[in-house]
Each structure stands twice: as C-alpha cells, then as structure tokens.
Specification:
The protein is an alpha/beta fold and 479 residues long. The chain has helices at residues 361-364, 368-401, 408-415, 420-429, 434-449, 455-464, 468-478, and strands spanning 11-14, 17-21, 42-44, 67-69, 91-93, 114-116, 137-139, 160-162, 183-185, 206-208, 229-231, 252-254, 279-281, 302-304, 325-327, 348-350. 19% of the residues lie in helices and 11% in strands.
Length: 479
C-alpha cells in the first residue's frame, strides 16, 4: 500500500503529464502527502477503496491538475465540493463510484473537456451544464437519468454523448444544435421512437440506438452521410429498415437480437449495397441461411452469427477472404467445409456450442491454426480425389460417346438441360464430329450440374429417354 513515506516513488511522466499513479493500491484514504505535489498534472487514484468523507480540503492545492481519475472507488458516494477549485482540470473520471449527484461546484470547471461517469446512480444533470462550454465528451451510461436539460444542447463543442442504459424516453428539442457531435449512444433506454432531429447531426459517425422499443427509423436517417457505425440490435422493427441500405459509408452494423415478427429473414437480400462494411453482427435472430448478398461484402473483417439456427456453414462466407474474426457460437453446424481454408486472414473462430463432428474434436481444441491446417490438408486431398474422378469421368464419357448414334446426341443434350443454342454451338465447334459432339455435351453437363453430375444420375437420364443400351454400356464400363 502506498504511504506518505514513499509517495514520490509513484511519480512518473505519463503521456507527457507529470503523473502520480496510485491506482490499485488498496487505499482507504487519500494520503495527505499528495497535496505537497502542487505541480502534479495527472493524479490516478482508480481502483482503490477511497471514501469521500475522508477527502481533505487540501485537494484544492492541486491547482495544476489537468487529469483526475477516481474511477472504481465504489464507496466514494459523492464528489467533494473542492472539485470546483481545480481550475485547470480538463478530464474527470469517476466511473462506478456510487455517485448519486454531481456537485454544483463541478459546473464551475470551465476548462473541463471530458467527463467520464458511467455506472453510478446519477438521476439528473444540472441546468448549469451549459457552463461547461469546453466539454467534448460526456460519458454517463449506466445511470438513472430520466430527462436531460435543454441547456445541454448549448454545448457546441460536444463530440461524444454516451447515455446508454438510463431511463430516457426523449432527447431535448434542441439536440440538432449539437453540430459537432460525432458519437451518440442512447441504447438500452425507454425510447419508443427516435427524434427526427437526430438526422440533422450531419457530422455524426457513430449511432447506438438498439435495445429500445422502436418500430422504425426516421426516413431522413439517410442524411447521416458520415455515419460509420450503427447499432440497432434488440429493436422491434416489423420489417428491416430499408433506409439503412442507403447509409453507404457504414463500416459497422450491429443488428442482432431483433424482436420483430420476421426476424428469420432479418438480413436483407440487398445488403451488398453496404459495400464498405467491415463488421457485421446478426446474433440471436433465428437465421437458417444467409442471402447471397453477404458474399459480396468483400471488406468484411468481423462476422458474428452466433445463437442462430444455422445447420451448415453458409457458402457465402467462403468468399469473404478479408475475414479475421468469425463467430458461429451456438448454432446447429455439424461440419466445417475444407473450402474454408480459403479464409487465409482468419485469426479467430468461435464454433463452441455446435454439434460439430468434423473436424475432429482434437483439431477444434487446438485453435485456429490447427483448424486451418487441417482444412487446408483436407482440401488438398479433396482436390487430388476430384482430379482423379474428373479424369475417370472424362475417360468414361469419351468411351460412351463412341457408342452414340447420330440421332441420339441431341436427345441426350436436351435431356441434360442444354439449350438448342448451346447444342448448335457445340455442333459448330466440333465440326460435325459425332463422337466429339457427344463428348462435349456430356462434359458441358458435368460443368453446369457440378456435384449433381454423377454417373448414377447420367444412367437415370439415359433410361428416361429410352436409351437403355447406352445406360447398360455405361454400367458395364464402370464395372
């Protein structure tokens, strides 16, 4: 524990400030010797057990203090009135200190730029908040605030306003005056609709509005042309808000835990319009598949699809070669395809809570490196097997083509789904060579049908057009 005799040993220069770092020292009181260091610019007292009742009046001696961190002193209860004497204070951190009210003296700190006070019991802000005209950041999440003073909207320098997990149902009418605002967080409150004036915050880059009982977004949200981050998780939309697809600057979209009736189709088919997306989270939505548009989000680096109903890895994911983090926790996926080895930039995969049988458990337990190495080797072996199968298929088709009569090759082509235009092109390119024409028909079908183009399926097609002799010939060749 720090004591008056060794206070000086905790001095340092941190981020260019003359600092006294007494964080996490199990302090119950503030050692009086601190107040002899009148040149201090930064004082860190976070993560102790300091009580306000024993904060001495000499705190006012720290007239040069610029940064004061009292965070996570859970028994602090309230700030001393002397806080208002710290005339040069720019940053005050009092998160999780059990504070119920900010002292009136705090509003005399005209140099204050950053106020960090989440996780307290604050119920209101004073009308005098406009005196803090240099404020750039207000962090008041996880409090009990029910309303905000209109004077808040006079803070023309404010860039960050974090009010998540309070009891707010509205914002002050003048919210549009905060033209410097870049981040607004009002998630987990009591909003039933979003104020249209939010759409006038033309410099807004980050907007968190999820976990409110909102049923739609304002139509003019598309005017937020600089918006990069949007969280609408745990909302109550009846349909996906199509306006979001026109926020083309978006880089991060969080829309999990949607409470609407059509949530299984919550990812819109046109999501590819958000071509700048780097992070996408769609958790707890009952998803069973993804639209093809997801595969076009080639800038994606983070994708979370946890707690859904996926029974297989959506193939669209395999095209996301910039992906670094993939979260698939608690779905119904039984295997990971070898083609997943194409995700060469992957750094984290979470497939916990899935009934996976492939790759084997020992590979999964080895982490990302082991999983990707296993899938890479499996893909190599699959490629060798496929090449061997292709060679054998080509040999059999060449041999079968020699048994086809002139009238039969078009019947076969049409049965296999080729168009007359395709058949004409094959005839022209094969220079009317019957065996070559038939061979190209069969190989075109193989290319178009992919894994469905099996020998057994070909036998069925031949029998369906009564070319039983060719079906029998193919069976004999296989044996």
């Amino acid at each position: 524990m720090a004591s008056p005799r060794n206070i000086s040993s905790y001095r340092c220069v941190k981020d260019g400030w003359k600092t006294l770092d007494l964080s996490n020292q199990k302090l119950l009181v503030i050692p009086p010797a601190i107040f002899e260091h009148i040149d201090l610019e930064r004082l860190d007292l976070q993560d102790n057990n300091i009580c306000t009742a024993v904060v001495p009046r000499e705190a006012a001696n720290l007239a040069s203090l610029v940064i004061l961190d009292l965070g996570n002193n859970t028994n602090l209860g309230h700030l001393p009135r002397q806080i208002g004497l710290l005339a040069k204070l720019r940053e005050l951190r009092v998160q999780r200190c059990g504070i119920e009210k900010l002292p009136e003296e705090l509003y005399n700190l005209q140099t204050l730029e950053v106020l960090v006070a989440p996780g307290n019991k604050i119920t209101t802000l004073s009308e005098d908040v406009d005196k803090l005209y240099n404020l750039k950041e207000i962090w008041l999440g996880e409090n009990e605030i029910e309303s905000l003073p209109g004077t808040l909207c006079m803070l023309s320098n404010l860039q960050t306003l974090s009010l998540y997990k309070n009891k707010l149902s509205s914002l002050p009418p003048g919210i549009a005056n905060l033209q410097s605002l870049k981040m607004l967080s009002i998630q987990s409150n009591r909003f039933t609709s979003l104020p249209a004036d939010i759409c006038k915050l033309c410099h807004l880059q980050v907007l968190h509005v999820g976990d409110n009982v909102i049923h739609e977004l304002p139509e003019n949200i598309t005017k937020l042309t600089k918006l990069r981050v949007l969280s609408i998780s745990a909302s109550h939309f009846k349909v996906f808000p199509a306006q979001v697809l026109h926020l083309w600057a978006l880089e991060e979209l969080y829309m999990g835990r949607w409470s609407g009736p059509g949530r299984r189709s919550f990812v819109p088919k046109d999501i590819a319009m958000l071509r700048n997306l780097k992070r996408l989270a769609v958790d707890v939505c009952g998803l069973e598949a993804l639209p093809d548009g997801v595969g076009a989000l080639t800038k994606l680096e983070y994708l979370s699809l946890s707690y859904n109903r996926l029974s297989y890895l959506p193939p669209q994911i395999l095209t996301l070669t910039n992906l670094k983090v993939l979260k698939l926790k608690n779905n119904g996926i039984t295997s990971l395809p070898p083609a997943m080895h194409r995700l060469t930039n992957i750094e984290q995969i979470d497939v916990s809570g899935n009934p996976l049988t492939y790759p084997p458990a020992e590979v999964l337990n080895g982490g990302v490196a082991d999983i990707m190495a296993f899938l890479t080797e499996e893909a190599r072996l699959e490629r060798i097997r496929r090449e061997r199968e292709d060679r054998e298929f080509s040999r059999l088709m060449n041999a079968l083509s020699a048994e086809v009569e002139r009238a039969e090759w078009r019947w076969i082509g049409r049965e296999l789904g080729l168009t007359d235009l395709e058949l004409h092109a094959i005839q022209e390119n094969a220079q009317d060579n019957l065996q070559e024409q038939t061979y190209r028909v069969l190989m075109t079908w193989r290319e178009q049908a992919g894994e469905c183009a099996t020998l057994d399926r070909l036998v069925e097609h031949l029998r369906s057009i009564r070319l039983h002799h060719l079906a029998e010939t193919l069976q004999d060749m296989r044996e």
